[in-house]
Amino acid sequence: MEKLKNYIYGEWIEGSGNGIPLYNAVTGEQVAVSDTEGLNFEQALDYGRTIGYKNLSSMTFYDRGEMLKKVALYLLERKKKYYELSYKTGATHIDSWVDIEGGFGTFFTYSGLAKRMLPNTPFWVDGDTQKISANGTHLGTHILTPSEGVSIQINAYNFPVWGMLEKLSTSLLAGVPSIVKPSPFGSYLTNAVFQDMIESGILPEGAVQLVCGEPGNILDYVQDGDSVLFTGSATTGRKLKSLSSVAGNAVRFNMEADSLNCSILGLEAKPGTPEFDLFIKEVRNEMTTKAGQKCTAIRRIIVPEHLIGDVQQALSKALDQTKIGNPLSRETRMGSLVGKQQYEEVLRKIDMLKAETELIYDGQHELVDADYENGAFMSPKLFLNDRPFEKNISHDVEAFGPVSTLMPYKDAEEAAALAKRGKGSLVGSIVSYDDQFVAETSWKMASHHGRIFVLNRDNAKESTGHGSPLPTLMHGGPGRAGGGEEMGGLNGLHFFLQKTAIQGSPDILTAITKVYQQGAEKKYSDKHPFRKYFEEVEVGDSLETAGRTVTDADIVNFSNVSWDHFYAHTDATSLTGTIFDKTVAHGYFILSAAAGLFVSGKKGPVIANYGLENCSFFKPVYAGDTITVYLTAKEKINRGVKGRNIPSGVVKWLVEVVNQRDEIVCVATILTLVAKQSPFIDLNLKNIQKALNGLTESTQPDWGKMSPQQMIEHLEHGVLVSLGEPEADKCFTPEEQLEKWQDSLYNHRKMPKDFPAPFLAEDEKLLELRHKNLEIAKQSFMDNLKRFIIYYKENPQAEHMNFVFGKLNKEMWELMHRKHFTHHFEQFGLI
After folding, report:
1. pLDDT per residue over 338-377, tens digit each?
2. Which residues are catalytic?
3. 671 and 752: one domain?
4. Domain Aldehyde dehydrogenase: where (predicted)?
5. Under the phi-then-psi rule, with left for phi > 0, alpha for psi from -120 to 50, and beta for the rest, what region is 625?
6. Residue 496: inside a domain, yes or no?
7. CATH number at residue 315
8. Domain assignment of residue 14, yes or no
9. What is the pTM (predicted TM-score) of this model?
10. Maximal C-alpha separation, the chain
11. pLDDT by residue (tens digit) across 88-101?
């Protein structure tokens, strides 16, 4: 039987013991063996802290985000084999989708957050700068850096893929190396996904390690700077947290434990209302998805006392319609528990519930293409606690399977009180169309819940459901739920980061943070900052504008244009008791006038105004005042772009507007999209001619078989096709891939050297020469390139067919030629 290998200190290592046999939860057949005996955990942790930390922490947040995306794409291409393994854990196709593609989705989400919101530096400036001296020569701020240690991540058996990836998404993005320790049950699926992550070659050495089996004494070796993330039972979690190695060192510990989550049906949601039907459907789903093996499943069903019978009847009917059996069968809607051991544990908890509460529904016992003897199947079970304020078993005992308890309440006060008797939950839901009931109940129960999900007819179609943690929202809960926090958007990274206060002068803080601080030295040059590409802009690049004297006419005109006729701008007789001496210029006129002073009108790298932040007006500006603007590059944010967007980054500019007395009247931060420098040659006739001057008959290509003249005539042919001379009669790219190929014209990736042109003959016969010699070919090429430039100035809407990219317009043809020319000019060493 295959033994799952562990991946530690950069090697795949097999345990030396007998290990734990792992069984197919549906058929009972053995699938694999997990074994960690003989592993050197101390060496594994040290390897992560040294090699892994060095490699990950030196990357920027932006680059780590790109890394997550590449890993997710790599895994997505191989998802079929993960589904085949997931069925063996008892999961249906939908269960597997939540686990597998939900895990990939978490990587994608965090990649997107990183590329939109995190800096292209290995550290992260957190919060605003604090002025801590009277004259602003001494400032303070905070930076976040990766905690110098390794993260040990202990996951539960119910989500072998998502459980691993949701923790890795934040630790890897934060720059902290991790050791993944899945539950042995289902670890063969975790192992398969992990193998592909390593084989992708995308993750740096030491970034991740895998321990498949018992954790042994791995926690004995944790030390200051390390962290432990645990998902599982609250009892086990508390034991781990109290270990001397954990409690006695500065080891960060995050626990996400199972909890007795509830769902509350609103007082008004009687049978026949959309909310009643939604409630029944939601409870049924949460009892049966993953066979109830979800830390977010509904364990307590809190219902108005007059609706207990209606809910019992409707829910029993809905559960009757849920076919149980082999996940590979199309009829099956609920699979099995993960194994016989878990089955016995759930039965033990059911017996405890029976001691105080009544089992009122025991499910349909027929199985689809499966049997109870070999598989770990269990029918859904519904209990009734008729006195939930007296009988506490429902609030104390969790059966981690398709088991839930129905209980009555009288009013919103009681509903909230019952919700809180779970002593801390990951999630509680309220299904109601009564805003007042929802508001009163939710804020009263919020102190005991990590998430509150409200469902009604308005959000039902787009709802993600009671049991679905989302990457952008916190997953965790107080009390019994562990007191931990995972994900929650960028907040999820803070667990892995060290926050450090930085104090110093404006110049020092600018140097450390790479964000311009007011009062730091400005860098002036003859080149307007808006004439610089993203790569050329440096933090501190500045511009001092000419002055502009504000007139009464400016104020009147802006009132008429904007329709802002606020009395302070238009009525000098109404200013008594205000802060103004006379009619004052509009704040947004000052900002607009400032933009008029600092923008560069000529087309350049700045693509668009991207936004406005932190705009404040400090002093009034009256007619006769003269304003001057200081524009300074404050911060640069790299930006991932998709589709047909020009590769660009965001530059934040500090705008300081002063009056003739050097008093600051307005400060704002504007954001601009700034194009990145293209690696491709401009369609500038002088530049192209200069490059061609270096091409002779004896010039040898660095790759390929073209002669210099064949290359020039090949490019000339492409130019003629873009003029419709001749019009290409077909495109060789399949229609369904055409948009993707056209999008590729806009990115800065170069053409591959080994690209097989589909329109050339199969025997790779090159184009026959049309011109007598190379010099004539070069001149003809330049003449036709000049014609191309003139043609599209005179016919800007023209479109012509390309053999690879389909019908292209002026912009696309220019992009295509720039890439194509660069490709072949580099082939012959001309640029």
Report:
1. 999 999 999 999 999 999 999 999 988 899 999 999 999 9
2. 256, 295
3. no
4. 12-499
5. beta
6. no
7. 3.40.309.10
8. no
9. 0.86
10. 102
11. 999 999 999 999 99
